[in-house]
TrEMBL record:
Family: Belongs to the binding-protein-dependent transport system permease family.
Regions that span the bilayer: 21-45, 93-116, 137-163, 215-236, 256-278
Cellular component GO terms, alphabetical: plasma membrane
Topological category with respect to the lipid bilayer: Multi-pass membrane protein
Pfam families: BPD_transp_1
Boundaries of every ABC transmembrane type-1 domain copy: 89-278
Gene3D superfamilies assigned to the protein according to its UniProt record, in alphabetical order: MetI-like (1.10.3720.10)
Domain of life per record: Bacteria
Compartments reported by the entry: Cell membrane
Organism for this UniProt entry: Agromyces mediolanus
Biological processes per GO annotation: transmembrane transport
Protein name in the entry: Peptide ABC transporter permease
Record keywords: Cell membrane, Membrane, Transmembrane, Transmembrane helix, Transport
């Protein structure tokens, strides 16, 4: 019984600390977090419980404006736009988040190796990153789509290749600064193995850089996915994403402007919210990194 009470107390303590940490952000960051939370919750409800109806069902007249019956209007086939918007938000956010997680793993591993070990290995990693970074993002994404074929895999691979180079460089720079600290030298003299130093000491002290770069990579990922789907190389019909909905809306910009305005507005809100969160994280972590690292 006592053990159960201790576990419950620890859970409440962790939740309390997490809540206090979120509450310490400024007003803009909180607004951005709530915006993302609302978008994701609505998309999740649409996926799990069919909020707004079926995204493929023809429910009314073609190109009907927003009304009580059709809150976001209908598209060129008479399908309600609301469930397609919710499906598009889920697809774009989920696809971008998975891609950025892969980016974070690859960039963190490569950046720590390049920044800590240096030498030929570090130089090779950085040169490969420079080559990828030299390509315009959308051109690189189109090249990937041409190789693997349009679809989810193309969008995923494109986002990773576009976001990895810059994040690797930033992680590498942060690693080099940490590697020059006295506690790293002490660990080396004490005989601590290189993998332990990288994971226990270096990774711990560059976590702020990883978090900040991860948020910026997420905003770039959403932009790349939207651009790729807009050009027809990303998510394909009958699927839905914000970029694909914008592409469909361009055909009816004058007759049915809501078809492009609504997904475009959601796309802008999502990217703006993520950038505001990234700015808040940067302001939070930079003073910490400026102090003596532990």
């Amino acid at each position: 019984m006592t053990a159960v009470i201790r576990v419950e107390g620890r859970r409440r303590s962790v939740l309390r600390r997490a809540w206090d940490y979120l509450a310490s952000f400024d007003g803009l960051a909180k607004t951005a977090m709530w915006t993302l939370a609302v978008l994701f919750t609505a998309a999740l409800l649409g996926r799990l419980f069919g909020l707004g109806g079926s995204p493929t069902a023809i429910v009314g007249p073609r190109l009907a404006p927003p009304s009580l019956a059709y809150p976001a209007g209908t598209d060129s086939l008479g399908r309600s736009l609301l469930p397609r918007l919710l499906e598009g938000v889920m697809t774009t956010l989920l696809l971008s988040a998975v891609a950025v997680l892969l980016t974070a793993v690859i960039a963190t591993l490569c950046g720590i190796i390049a920044g800590y070990r240096g030498g030929r290995t570090g130089g090779l990693i950085m040169r490969v990153g420079d080559i990828l970074y030299a390509f315009p993002a959308i051109v690189l994404a189109i090249l990937v789509a041409a190789v693997v074929g349009p679809g989810y895999i193309a969008a995923l691979c494109s986002i990773v290749l576009v976001t990895v180079p810059l994040m690797t460089r930033m992680v590498g720079q942060a690693t080099r600064l940490v590697a020059q600290r006295d506690f790293i030298t002490s660990a080396v003299i004490s005989g601590v193995s290189t993998p332990v130093i990288m994971t226990r000491h270096v990774l711990r002290n560059i976590s702020g850089t990883i978090a900040v770069q991860g948020t910026y990579a997420l905003s770039v990922a959403i932009l790349v996915e939207g651009g790729l789907s807009f050009l027809g190389y990303g998510v394909q019909l009958p699927g839905s994403s914000l970029g694909l909905l914008v592409q469909e809306g361009t055909l009816y910009m004058v007759k049915a402007p809501w078809l492009i305005l609504l997904p475009g507005l959601i796309l802008v809100l999502a990217i703006l919210a993520i950038n505001l969160i990234g700015d808040s994280l940067r302001d939070r972590f930079e003073p910490r990194e400026a102090r003596s690292l532990e």
